Every structure is written in structure tokens, then in C-alpha cells.
Amino acid sequence: MQQDILINWSPQETRVAIIEHGAVQELHVERTLERGLVGNVYLGKVARVLPGMQSAFVDIGLERAAFLHVADLHGARPHEEHGNRHGQPAVPIEKQVFEGQPLMVQVIKDPIGTKGARLSTQISIAGRLLVFLPGDDHVGVSQKIPGEQRDALRSRLTNLVGTPATGGGGGFILRTNGEDASDAELADDISYLRKTWARIKDAALRLPAGSLLHQDLSLLRRVLRDLVTEGTQTIRIDSREQFGILKAFGEEFMPQAAAKLQQYKGERPIFDLFNVDEEIARALGRRVDLKSGGYLIVDQTEALTTIDVNTGGFVGARNFDDTIFRTNLEAAGAIARQLRLRNLGGIIIVDFIDMQREDHRDAVLAEFRKQLARDRVKTMAGGFSQLGLVEMTRKRTRESLAHMLCEPCEWCHGAGQVKTARSVAYDILREILREARQFNPREYRVVASPRVVELFLDEESQHLAGLSDFIGKPISLQSENAMGQEQYDIVLL
């Protein structure tokens, strides 16, 4: 898949857009004051151990304590969570860590919403060609490299890594972009990673608990390390200064990627080339229009994301079944793109339009899985449920685009709706009646939003006057522009 990468850099923010077939497929944003934490290594201190959850909270110097599950302790394997391969029970977390214990940990998931960062004690340091596992002795090769090449590559890498007796040690995994690397390039990466690990160990002995020992590369450098593929044609950046810095970094560590680097000198902003800012604005909305006239509705909550497919105005096919089928086929590709663009993760429920024919359902599901296979993030999609829903998951390691760029509305607090002005007016009438039974003021003054006050002066004036007569006290109104529609005060004078 051929792609272009655009980098818009400013002192406060770096934005990276991945373009395929002239359309934005992925957007990565890193703000100088809000850099992600995944990959960072800390010297933490165990704050609490929770045997019932087989987990612990670790203080790493952040606002919220981070979360460490027993499965993420060094030496654990997924199948050992409830018992090891010999049928013996796994060692419970309370016998492995204790409160107050200093612990070297690495962030594997950023804090998301109200959840703290997720940690692992299995430290891994990514290089250009290799991933170094200091606490392991395994030499592995990426599963994306064809099987017939893996054994030869593993043998080469084992010889280069050496053994503890020869000054080696530690585990290494060959990354996909190291498939064609020479022995000299691999040896350079091994040396770089071991030097980095030596600096981390030295810092752990000198610094107090809660200290940052190692920070992963910035987004600008991770573009060359993680986002460039064989299909990448150009990497364009609009900053002359950062172009020079990135070029020097790339020529030292990633020469093949650096060769694709270009400085953008056009008069138009670089993101205007492919209308990236317009795509960002659309990616923050609920509705996504399809070319056929159908549309998607995307609703993101903390627990899961739901995507609903609708035919809208699409009536182009010869019969209704074909209309539904073609809309669902187009939606399958659009949904996969929206997942990447919005960086949606966790549990995702897709409600395709109901299809009567089984071959239509199979074709839509096959197209959906084909489109998901292009995603660099791990995804897993099931079949159609009895209710016609497709359940899937997408690995979540950082905040979604909406969570990064937006915040909950201060009036509705993320609910997406507020009470009507009439509902608030009736709440006020009930509250005045409640106050009248407890207090005996000279007058009641209602301070509310302009819409609520306007309603009292017009359509609800009779009800307000009737309440005033009933309690025997005057009720005055005061409009306050700074108040939200649901906000009001009742002042006793």
C-alpha cells in the first residue's frame, strides 16, 4: 500500500498525517506539554497491593497511581495468569510485591479517562531494527517476516547477540524493518540498545522512587522508526530546522527512511494539500457521510464505541436488498478508516443494516476484515451475532483523537444533551414551592439563563403568577448570560 506522510511541526504541537489513495488514513498528534507515556521507564514505588484483583497500584510520580496486573510482572505469561504450564497455580501478586517496594516499570498503556497508566515490569527498549528485552534471554523474529526466512535470521541474530560469557546477554526481537539489515547494522543497533539499558540501570541506582529513567522517542523521530513502511513514498515536513534535525537522526539510525525525507517549502500550509484539517473536523463529529448517500453514526463512550450504519438517501440499486448490501459494503471500508483516523480502541460494536441473504452477510464481513487487516494496530472481529451486530476489539494504547483534542462540555458534562428550558422552569417552580414551606422571605428572586427567563415572561407567565398568588409572595426574575441552561439560583430577599 503506497502512502505519503505529512508532518506539520510547531513549537507547541507536532501533527502527522498518513495519506493513502489521496485520503487521510491516520492522524497522530503530540503536544509538547502532553507527551504520551507509552515506552517510558520509571523507578516506581508500590503504593497498594490488591490481592482480590491480583494487581497493584504503583506511584510513578504522576497525578494518578499506575496499574500493574500480575500478568504483567516479569516472568508471567498469558497462560500463567491462573496457573502455569505444569498445572501449578501462579504465584499470587501479594507474594511477589509489597507496599513501599521500589520497582522498575514501563508504561504499556497511557492514562485514558479516569484510568491510570498500565505498567509492566518486563522492560523493552525499541531500536531501529531490534527490540531489546533486558530481563529475557530469548532471540525472536517478527511474525510478519515470512516463515522460511525466520530461522536463518534468528540464527544470524543469535550469533551477533552472543552470551553472557562473551559480554552478551538479554533478549532481542528482530523488527520487520530489520529483515534486510546487514550484520554491521544489527550489531550497531545491539550496541545502541545495550548502552541505553546501561544508562537506565545507572539512573535507577542514583535517582529516587517516582523518577523517569528513560523516555521514548518523540513523535517526530517515531515517524522514521515506526510509521515508515516499504510503501512509503515521501515524508514531507514543513519546518526547516526540524528537517535538519530529523535528517541527521535518520541518517545515523534509519538511512532508508531518511532518504524519503523532504522539506516542504510550499506557500500553502502542508495540511491543506489533502484537506487534513477538514478531515480532523469531520472525525470529531458523530455523523460520517458515505459517497452513496448512506451515513454512519459513531458514538464513543468510556465502556465501548458503537457504530450504526444507515442507508440515508441511497436508492441507486435495483432493489432494496441490493441497496442495503452496497451500503454495508461501502460502510465496511469507511468504518475501518474511521477506526484508524479517530484512533478508536477497546470494544467496538458495529450495527450494519440487516441483510436477509447469507452470502451478502459473508461478503460484507469478508470486506470488513480485509479493510481491518490494513491497520497497523491489532484488531479482532467476530461474525454477525443473533441480533445482527458485529463485535470487535482494537488494541488501545493511547487516547483517541476526540479525547486528545476535545473535553466534555461544561454544561452537559459529556452527556450530549441538556434539559429543555421548560423542564428547568418547572424545576424552579417546584423549588420555590419547597422553599416557601420552610422559609418566610419578603420576596423570591429567580436568577437563570436568558432562555428560561424569557419562557417565564412569555409562555409560563401564568404559571409563575399563579404560584406567586398561592404562596403570597412576589417572584422577580433576573437573566444571567453566564449561566448554562440547567443552572439557576433562587435568592430569598
TrEMBL record:
Annotated Gene Ontology cellular component terms: cytoplasm
Record's Gene3D superfamilies? Answer: Nucleic acid-binding proteins, Ribonuclease E, catalytic domain
Q: Which family does it belong to?
A: Belongs to the RNase E/G family. RNase G subfamily.
Domain of life according to the entry: Bacteria
Q: What name goes with this protein? A: Ribonuclease G
Supply the InterPro entries for this chain.
Answer: NA-bd_OB-fold (IPR012340), RNA-bd_AU-1/RNase_E/G (IPR019307), RNase_E/G (IPR004659), RNase_E_G_thioredoxin-like (IPR048583), S1_domain (IPR003029)
**Whose protein is this, by species?**
Ramlibacter humi
**What cofactor does this protein call for?**
Mg(2+)
Q: Name one GO molecular function term.
A: rRNA binding
Task: Give the keywords, sorted.
Answer: Cytoplasm, Endonuclease, Hydrolase, Magnesium, Metal-binding, Nuclease, RNA-binding, rRNA processing, rRNA-binding, tRNA processing, tRNA-binding
The segment(s) forming the S1 motif domain are 37-122
Cite the Pfam families for this sequence.
RNase_E_G, RNase_E_G_Thio
Q: Which SMART domains match?
A: S1 (SM00316)
